[in-house]
Design goal:
There is one protein chain. With 273 residues, this protein is mostly helical. It folds into two domains: 134 residues, no CATH class; 63 residues, no CATH class. Helix content is 37%, strand content 3%. The protein has a two-stranded antiparallel ribbon. A hairpin with a 2-residue loop joins β1 and β2.
Length: 273
């Protein structure tokens, strides 16, 4: 069997060397072209298809790994995980030391100026990228670790609020610091929590407004440990007064105060005839 194969190859070789030079050149060019196409195709497949990556990363075979990113659908594996300017990528890494510089290689403008609004900012969030890049020393993955592979459903490939709270204290950061007024729906839970109110309405305890023409000091009511939901709605009419004037008087006139001017600073209206 081996001898027969050798004879066939030898015969083909002898026939080829006796062909005209023009045909030999054409055969050589076609062989080089086909070989190049095969080589380039194999290189493209092995550096850009997650299916090939799964031959090693078989434990990451979840559906999200194979999905295209909603933010970077055209980016292939090598652009994030390989060294820059390698003609044939081969030294792949997933650590931030490799991926972060590749982020800034394409998004170099975020280091020079603030970009607002920016693409894919569907929530109109105020994110000063330049200052964040400076504060984190260019560690983009601290916020954008899910930009290509999002393991949490539903997949958005955008930073989640929990990532923000890794640095920003949840109870001390106002919502409007990142969310412009009117850009997000107001909370509609039936019970109002004072700590949640304070996220947007900082300093409301010092607000001295009027309700039904009477001075209303928030601080004294808060010191009496009165929940915000006793007076304010948190449903469709967010923040509006729930109580009627008569309901307010049930508390304030249950025991007549000695100093009426504490509330009636502009005098007590005369009773109507």
């Amino acid at each position: 069997m081996i001898r027969r194969t050798i004879n066939i190859v030898t015969e083909i070789f002898h026939r080829l060397i006796h062909l005209p030079t023009r045909i030999l050149v054409m055969v050589a060019l076609v062989s080089i072209l086909l070989g190049s196409v095969f080589f380039l195709g194999l290189t493209q497949y092995s550096t850009s298809r997650p299916e090939f990556c799964l031959t090693c990363h078989y434990w990451q075979g979840q559906v999200s790994f194979l999905k295209k990113s909603l933010v970077h659908p055209q980016i292939n594996c090598s652009e994030c995980h390989a060294r820059h300017a390698e003609w044939i990528p081969r030294d792949y890494q997933a650590e931030p030391e490799r991926t972060d510089p590749n982020c800034l290689r394409c998004h170099a403008d975020v280091q020079k100026k603030e970009i607002n609004p920016f693409k894919h900012n569907v929530m109109e969030i105020i994110i000063p990228h330049k200052s964040h890049v400076e504060l984190t020393a260019g560690q983009c993955s601290l916020c954008h670790d899910n930009i290509m592979h999002d393991k949490i459903s539903p997949e958005t490939n955008r930073p989640r609020m929990e990532s923000c709270f890794a640095c920003h204290e949840r109870t001390k950061t106002s919502c409007v610091k990142c969310h412009p007024k009117g850009s997000i729906d107001l909370p509609h839970q039936p019970h109002v929590v004072r700590s949640e109110c304070n996220l947007c309405h900082k300093g409301f305890e010092n607000y001295q407004g009027k309700i039904y023409g009477i001075s209303f000091p928030h601080r004294s009511h808060l010191q009496a440990d009165m929940p915000c939901g006793n007076c304010h709605s948190n449903k469709e009419k967010h923040g509006s007064i729930l109580l009627k004037r008569e309901e307010c008087l049930k508390c304030h006139h249950e025991k007549v105060q000695k100093d009426c001017a504490a509330c009636h600073r502009e005098g007590i209206p005369s009773p109507k005839a």
